[in-house]
Amino acid sequence: MRLDLRTITVIVVLAGLALMPLLAWAVDEPYWLRFWSRVMILALAAVGVNLILGFGGMVSFGHAMYIAIGAYAVGALRFHGVEGGLPDLLLAVGAGALVALIIGAICLRTAGIYFIMITLAFAQMTYFFFISQEQYGGDDGMRIEGGTRLGPLDLSNDATLYYATFLLLCGALLVSWRLVNSRFGMVIRGARSNEQRMTALGFPTYRYRLTAYVISAVICAIAGALLANLTLYVSPAYTHWTRSGELLIMVILGGLGSLFGPVLGAIALLLLEDVIAHFTRHWQLFLGPILILVVIFAREGLFGLLTPRRQRSHTAGGSHG
Questions:
Q1: What is the per-residue pLDDT across 91-100, written as a single tens digit (0 to 9) for each?
Q2: How many CB atoms lie within 10 A of CB 296?
Q3: Among residues 5, 179, 232, 241, which one has the fewest Cβ atoms lying within 10 Å of its Cβ?
Q4: CB contact at 8 A, 7 and 258
Q5: What is the span of the domain harbouring residue 160?
Q6: How distant is the alpha carbon of residue 267 from its chain centre?
Q7: First CA to last CA across the chain, in angstroms?
Q8: Is the pLDDT of residue 321 over 70?
Q9: For every residue of the chain, which 3-state class applies, written as one string?
Q10: Which residues contact 254 (CB under 8 A, 6 or more apart)?
Q11: What is the pTM of this model?
């Protein structure tokens, strides 16, 4: 079987991520382990955002609040002396799903610029809610005492956290692939193109879109729980709209509507940030023009560049990945 460039890239990137801890150990660079853990955590969140943005056409400027909810779930439990990994995961997933169900049910009554603005408004409300929680540090944030333990697995160990994140990222990609290439994915993509037509065909598009929104939020909440274990710190700043903007950039940079694009986008954005920051404190000044050039000359993102030119018109906005 002949593999195309996109498939080879996916295999190489995932194999590289799987072997990164061994490389970090061989060259005695523990920083690499934490850096690539952060990359994969944000890539996981970007995969969640891509489900509604790339395939559903829903531009959310509030998805960072679900990262914060997942992170605060871990921090709050630890603050109240609750140990163990199962409560962490149950609270992160449950709280993320419940909040997304309520907010999504309201937001999805709107569309276009109104949807963007209302998700931004909810993100700001969440930001001020966490600031008001003085017992959890308020505006200063909160240190977390100890990481999550899942049976014999202790996520306060860098290598354990790394591979847990890697497996969850692979799981999220697999779930996204199954969803996108199912009847569910067909309805979501159809509603993005022409919701009235899909409704006329008898599909309850509102319920489908709300389900996609909740799944997307849950993935981000899981990413938040992992981020809390990586930094052992949680802050209201996690909910800021600029954090949501970074997730959107990762999705667009990697390739809107491609399953693996968000992973490439997260890797590219964080690598650029890390490299440029070594030379100047004003790294954002140089990162901006680079992103503009990518958007202008690679409209289908980095993953789209791996698609043969004759196929690009057919795969734009499709479900390949």
A1: 999 999 999 9
A2: 8
A3: 5
A4: no
A5: 9-240
A6: 12
A7: 17
A8: no
A9: CCCCHHHHHHHHHHHHHHHHHHHHHHCCCHHHHHHHHHHHHHHHHHHHHHHHHCCCCCCCCCCHHHHHHHHHHHHHHHHCCCCCHHHHHHHHHHHHHHHHHHHHHHHCCCCCHHHHHHHHHHHHHHHHHHHCCHHHCHHHCEECCCCCEECCEECCCHHHHHHHHHHHHHHHHHHHHHHHCCHHHHHHHHHHHHHHHHHHCCCCHHHHHHHHHHHHHHHHHHHHHHHHHHHCEECHHHHCHHHHHHHHHHHHHHCCCCCCHHHHHHHHHHHHHHHHHCCCCCHHHHHHHHHHHHHHHCCCHHHHHCCCHHHHHHHCCCCCC
A10: 46, 260, 261, 262, 263, 264, 265, 266, 268, 301, 302, 303
A11: 0.91
Residue recorded with tokens 């008001």: 132
- Pick the more confident residue, 289 or 182: 182
Tell me the per-residue pLDDT of 236-282, one tens digit each, with 9 for 90 and over.
Answer: 988 888 889 899 999 999 888 889 999 999 999 999 888 888 877 77
Percent of the chain with pLDDT over 70: 95
Burial 179-216 (b: 16+ CB within 10 A, else e): bbeeebbebbbbbbeebeebeeeebebeebbbbbbbbb
Cβ-based burial of 63 (10 A; exposed 0-12, middle 13-18, buried ≥19): buried
Both structure tokens of 108: 């999805």
Scanning the structure block, which residue is given the tokens 């802050």? 235
Task: For residue 275, tell me if it sits in a domain.
Answer: no
| 75 residue type, one letter | G
The domain total for the chain is: 1
């966490």: which residue's tokens? 130
Is pLDDT larger for residue 295 or for residue 121? 121
Question: Is residue 271 a part of any domain in this protein?
Answer: no
Residue 233's closest CA among 67, 88, 71, 77?
71
Q: Note the maximum CA span of the chain.
A: 61
